[in-house]
Amino acid sequence: MMKPLHPIMVHFPIALLVVSIGADAVGLLAAVPSLSHTGWWTMLAAAGGAVVTAAAGVFDMRRATLSEDVHHRVHRHMKVGIVLVIAILGLAFWRWRMQLGGGPVSMYYIDAGVFAVVLAGVQGYLGGELVYTDGVFVRRASQSGDAKADTSSHHH
What we know:
It is a single chain. This protein has one domain (6-149): Four Helix Bundle (Hemerythrin (Met), subunit A), CATH 1.20.120. The chain is built from five helices and two strands; from the N terminus they run H-H-H-H-H-E-E. It has helices at 6-9, 11-29, 35-63, 68-101, 107-132, and strands at 139-141, 147-149.
């Protein structure tokens, strides 16, 4: 079976979101206009990465065999993920509009970005629970040292 794609990809858009908001905040508060370029390009990359990562999550979810209660938690993770992707795309559009204007970002944008970063933290927690508590896509090592799928919580 092909390894899951979503866990490999998820760190990139989150890191790019944090770097983007951080660069824009420091650029605004410390009056360093060159950080605006970092904020813009990393937000653009975060938006593209978020869409691809969410699609990979849906792909992985559809091929996983999950118990009903784990499936419910996967759907909660997916719903929060959809809100997060929409937030990142909204921030990217807003950031693009400010980029066209040539001026600095607004504190409202920074505030919205901090909210998106907090939402990404909640999303990461939910994803971590799926892996570390529910064992989604985790293999248990057998006595012979070979990795065997742990299907104890992974049946439909």
